[in-house]
Amino acid sequence: MIVWGNGGDLVDLAHEQVQACATCGQNRPFKVFLKYRYFHLYWVFGAITERKYLQLCDICRRGTEIPKEQLALFNVQAIQLPFMRRFGLLALAGLIAAFVGWSIYNGR
Asked: What is the pTM of this model?
């Protein structure tokens, strides 16, 4: 039985600026977030399928998407996503290749 699924997370990139919020109608602090989606096998071996950078109001969590090309304007720090969520499927493929290679080598 193969257990697979998907999930997502919202990561605060720790940049804050005050601007007018269209939803709240007041000047509010806005932060930049990375919203990503991932696919996984057995909750361990994953791969990121989508990334979006968002500038959201700190109060109502509404805002706009930031194109990746404009991300440098916000002076955010690089974030390290969990290794197995980024490269888990690649690690699984490497384990399978190593096992197959070991089996062929010892099978002779």
From this structure: 0.78
Contacts of 26 by beta carbon, 8 Å cutoff, 6+ apart: 20
DSSP states along the chain: ---EEEEEEEEEEEEEEEEE-TTT-SEEEEEEEEEEEEEEETTTEEEEEEEEEEEEETTT--EEEE-GGGGGGGTPPP----HHHHHHHHHHHHHHHHHHHHHHHHH-
Measured on CA atoms in the order 96, 99, 105, 108, is the torsion positive or negative?
Answer: negative
15 near 44, Cβ under 8 Å? no
Q: Are 12 and 74 in contact (CB under 8 A)?
A: no
| Digit-coded pLDDT (tens) for 24-58 | 888 999 999 999 999 999 888 999 999 999 999 98
d(CA 50, CA 78): 17
